[in-house]
Amino acid sequence: MIRFTHASVTYPGGVAALKDLSLDIAEGEFVVVVGLSGAGKSTLIRTVNGLVPLSGGSVEVGSRTVGDLNRSRLRALRADVGMIFQHYNLVNRTTVLNNVLMGRLNRVPGWRSMLGWWGRDEVERAMRALEVVEIVEKAYVRAANLSGGQQQRVGIARALAQEPTVLLADEPVASLDPPTSHTVMRYLHRANRELGITTLVNLHFLDLARQYADRIVGLRAGAVVFDGPASAVDEKV
Ligand code: ADP
Ligand code: ADP
């Protein structure tokens, strides 16, 4: 589903964030990428939806080679790839429901949705996404009035409303306390299992990775230093 072939990224200024990295992620897998700060985790994830361009090699998502896509095809790719952020990136002044509907902008282009005029079927779809993360009762609450854990659940719902085939989560629990981190990881896991969405999550806590991942990829200085089932990871990654 996601295939990196000799992928490298060198940022302007010369930092080599990914170095000749090859990795194959199968459809439906739940993969957690672990590594210290600066290892290249965030860069790796951002190459999948073309937010960071490769300097060499390729990344393929399904049948698409990301670097070869023109603007409209890149937009179509991004519609298929949901993204979840460390700081949730919600629009705080509007409601939870409106935030989730923003995930639909990728699917329902046009001036009605741009203006926030959504049909009933779209609202129902957004509500179903909120049901997955069990936060329907907050639909009409302003996003700013939710706790961090609740905001991240809305972040997941927004991504799910997009009906993605791939979900990317860049340090989704780094701003949350341990119990809340588990809650958020459980919902990501649920989305993977129940909806079959191929999921790639960056984490810096190995414990959490071992509890939820099918497979753990360890990154260090832009290269894969470990790749195996969660059960095979020792403490030293
Ligand atoms: P991680 O997510 O594992 O912390 P990153 O992918 O964010 O790692 O960063 C990998 C390396 O690339 C680091 O050395 C970081 O400083 C550098 N880097 C990340 N983003 C940029 C950027 N936009 N410009 C220049 N260097 C960057
Ligand atoms: P930044 O200052 O980090 O670029 P912005 O102030 O631009 O952030 O806030 C927009 C953030 O929301 C960006 O990080 C962007 O990637 C993210 N974003 C944009 N569109 C969507 C979307 N449809 N779903 C989720 N996140 C989105």
From TrEMBL:
Keywords: ATP-binding, Cell membrane, Membrane, Nucleotide-binding, Translocase, Transport. Residues 2-237 form the ABC transporter domain. One of its GO terms (molecular function) is ATP hydrolysis activity. GO terms for cellular component: membrane. It comes from the Bacteria. Pfam families: ABC_tran (PF00005). NCBIfam families: ABC_phnC. This is Phosphonate ABC transporter ATP-binding protein.
